[in-house]
Amino acid sequence: MKNLIYTAIMIVSILSSCTQKTEECCKTSNPEQVILSQVAAQNDPIITVAPNLEIGQLGDYYDAKAIGTLAYEWGYAMVRMEQAMRDYINVPEPKPKTSYRAPLNKIGWAKRLPTAQDKDMPTANNDTYYMSAVVDLTEPYILKTPDTDGRYYVVNVFDMYHTLTEYIGKRNTGTEAQTIALIPPGWKGNLPKSVDKVVHIKTSKTWLWGRIHVLEGEDISKVHDLQDQFTLNTLSEYNGEKALAKRSSLPAMPQYAVSDSLRFYKYLAFAMSQNEILEEDKSLVGQLERIGIKDGKFDASSLNASRLKGLKEAAVEGPIAILASMYSSSFVNNGWNVAVKLDNYGYDFSFRSLISGPYLGGQGEKEAMYPIRFTDSENKPVLGVNSYKIHFKEEPPVNSFWSLTLYDANNKLFYDNELNRYKFSRESKGLKINEDGSFDILIQNTKPENTDNWLPAPKGNFYLILRMYEPHQEVIDIKYQFPQMVKLK
Description:
This protein is α+β, with helices and mostly antiparallel strands. The chain folds into 3 domains: 2-50, no CATH class; 90-238, Domain of unknown function DUF1254 (Immunoglobulin-like, Sandwich); 336-487, Sandwich (Jelly Rolls). It is built from 12 helices and 22 strands. It has a 5-stranded antiparallel sheet. Helix 10 (305-328) packs across helix 11 (349-356). The radius of gyration is 27 Å and the shape is globular. It starts with a helix and ends with a strand.
């Protein structure tokens, strides 16, 4: 009781003092600044500052802004997956040979490597054919893979939070023929003895995202034959029975105009209605009720003007926080940005969201690493009007293969050039390696007299990705020193 009386006396005393200060502050400051200065002056404002209408309105604004930013960081990956999966089951007619799209619950393969004329996928690689299958797990599905006789391939199993659940392929499970069961949440039952591997998935939809290596100049009919041997069926179909209830499409995703400043929260509510909320996320999701998201719906009418203002600002600032995670969640090694958290994002929701955006389907460091480069040795943005040299003392240390690929920064696509050269790899005919294993890559816009080892660049900004499939442990541990990129003129 004495403590309560003491606290009350303190509040009255401080409010009296604050009133005098407020009268003075109001002559030069706005009400928000007055409140903030009063709060900042207290040792424990929760005890000593009495709430009032102005504090209530300002607090609603800050609370909604903070939760709105968190919602963006946490939920963008799920929204992106819902949007992308609908794109990937929308098969164009005629279907381009570079397209990996397929109907729901079917496997789609690209049958040709992309060129500068192909716009289907920004930052695509020029090393592998891509595979995609969006699977609605109304029951377990059985994925069968062929014996690739040592050829590199991988099928990544993603849940709808863009979390990598499993790798099927050369590094993790080998290249012999395999039978894999994909199990939805809560399913109980018996699997055939022929199943080699069981993969439990936390959401009732999954995305299978695959790659198979293509060697420069090889007979691609052999690769096409291998692709055709990947099969996907429901457990019922695999057992020779009629499949259980099976959707042929996904519910349409609502569309909102860019001018709708609350559109992200509407998309997020929809995505949440389509997917299981993970047990470890339930306390976070409970906080979203304060910004009107509950039971898969967003109710803007339940929010006052202060909360709406905070949410609208968070919808603009949230993406900036996500983009900044490129630097806070990666390492810089000799000018290369290197990320090593794709196998386990933990609670780094911003980085998960970033990867699910422009790097959707990116693999973890044990499978592959993708060091990216935007600057030269002087930390200045690279421009094709300049000339640059990258000296490799030896080939990058990998157990499978590597490639160095250049992209036009304006559209994230290959740069169109007379050699149709977008990358260098060990198999590249234009790459000359010295007797000691070293080699230099020349990067510029103007064509040199000797085009060996020349990687053509646009006149403006570009960036590089050094793909390393099955990197050695020294690379994963960031002990390997990546080659420097030096401006020549």
